[in-house]
Amino acid sequence: MPHSTYLADQMGSATLEPTGSFEAGSYGSFTLAYTAGPFGIDDSGGIKISFRTTTDMGKPQFTDPKGRNYTTAEASNGAALHLLFDRINIRPWVHTLYVRLIGGFLRAGEKITVRFGDRRQGSEGIRLQTNAETYFPFKVYVDAFATYDFTELPDSPAIDLVPGPVSEWRVIAPTLRRPDEKFRLALVKLDRWGNPGASGGGRFTLTCTLPVKGLPERIAVGPDEGTVLLDELAASQPGDLVVALTDEAGNAIARSNPTRVVAGNTSSYWSDFHGQSGETVGSGTARDYFAFARDQALLDIVGHQGNDFQITEAFWDELNRLTREFQEPGRFVTMPGYEWSGNTGVGGDRNVFFKREGRVIHRSSHALVTDGRDGNTAAHTATDLFSALADQEAVTFAHVGGRYADIAVGHDGRIERSVEIHSTWGTFEWLLHDAFRLGYRVGVVCNSDDHKGRPGLASPGASLFGAIGGLTCLRLPALTRDHVFEALRRRHHYGTTGTRLHLDIRASFDEGEIFDEDPSLGPAASGRTTTATMGDIVRTRGPVRLAVDVAAPAPIEKVDIFRGTELIATRRPYDASGPSRRLRVIWEGAEYRGRGRQVTWDGEARLTGNRALRAAPVNFLNPERRLTADGGTHLRWASVTTGNLAGMELWLDDASAGEIAISTKPASPKWKIAEIGYQETVVEAGGLGRRIRAYRLPEENTHRAFAFSLDVPVAPERDNPIYARVTLEDGHQAWSSPLYVIP
After folding, report:
1. CATH, residue 736
2. Assessment of whether the complete model's pTM goes beyond 0.70
3. Which of 285, 338, 555, 572 is most buried by a 10 A CB count?
4. Would you place residue 28 in the very low, low, confident or very high pLDDT band (cuts 50, 70, 90)?
């Protein structure tokens, strides 16, 4: 619901110094001066200064004048003030500094001066939000009458947040194309917080592992130039195409993800189905959101998923206009839809997608919207939602965000085709395993749930989001919405933690029956077959010969093969028998399924009888959380996980000498280094999949492509969901949708 608008123009005014543009994630000092209006502010009244729910701006503190984020407030007449910072405002302006008069009042014209990042006593200042945003307001609300009914000022002050210097160059390419099929390439400049459009440029050389028609040998990028798109490219020669970017001094700057060029009936297309903009709880506009997906992140498919209880009728109409406007078959596909945001107890979050625009939005509630309340369109439970969608061309995903989808409470396999097991909220493979235990046949998707206007290039920043945004790759004969819906219904897709790798799993068997639909849901057409791929539902006596093919942008650590919840095989592309001085320690997991899932792994490690010649972090996604090494024997770190993994890698002086002792709050294992091998040594730490793993990797792993086959036995009396999980050395992972071999 909106705040009071009672006499808003008479509630005073606010100014901010300095104003202008500031580097996202930098430290600054800002003075907000509120001047009381004709009513003044009565004793125990006050003001609120609020910021978006999803901002990761430094949290103001009031006790350490030399510390970061130190914030002060004073009244011009000497009245005593009480300061509180908490989540005490209405979504989306939740993060709030509450300044309350507790020993006096204000007359008209008297002031409250708030200094965010007060540097007068030595503070570095306050850390600004890490994601760039053109309009970052300091929303001011006034309780002039001490009624706790706050009126929003009509003109709150604002600043602009811009990307910092370039920290990483990225070359984004497609993943699977047919010979001579046209494609695009993107050169992206990212600052240290993952903002594209970072400042910096230069002259570069582009080299390829395969000839590419239309690709220039050299390119110049201006210091203020945004993402560079190279269009109308094609490769005729089959193989794995990798494009490398080299500067004028010959330094390797970046290399693309591999593009598998091979004849076939389908190509791969990348999607981020799930994110929000500033009209709901995110930032930026929905129009900018769609343009970013197409022109910055080089996505082929995108969906917008605002929380339903914040989508007004006008914004729903606008979303439908935008998906229609940006829809361009063969180049860019948009997905009309919304996030059904029911409470966990009635089913939890679901992503809803329609095949066509102009459909009815069935909200879980009207908590923050007034229009449409009198209509008969609400779906208050997940069961209600599936009933409302039963006769529509719609699909849903079960989603884990602030609320998680409880698929035991509500699920309809005719509509809910997949579960989302990774986003910026973390990794949730447990949701897929829930589906197996309940007998559901679902696919795997990964998306960002980005709230920063960066679909397809979402990074966690410094907030409670603990992971890079995921991506889903679909196999399609052509890039159209009809083909996207067919692929979603057949589960012909896989998900990743944001990396763009090629993944293919195929099964072969002597004889089998393949179904167009899940036969457990009703009559389904079928045909004879001897092969199947991810997402298919087949009936065969087995055994199944499974072929797995991976081409990745980073060295491949391992591929795990699951039959349901059971890990049945692990394959590594390298020799896992020789001595190695390269040791990896990984921590992972979550506290529990809900909002407070983040696990703090801050800790240290001590080496005795050995030392680390070099140490490197794995999945340290927040630049302010670091790994440091003291003399090679004492390491310290600050790290979190939210169901995903993080850790460190050590290159030891001696491959087998001494011990390593880990000390963290969740677990503190101690190992003899000689006893740590290529097979993982695991210490469980409670929670939801919390554990610490230690193992070796080869001192050099050059394997970015890996293909293998294995026989998978099938149980004739139950479902056999067979899927692959890929882990790369850079910490990224990918999951295929399961292939279902059914009784």
Report:
1. 2.60.40.10
2. yes
3. 338
4. very high
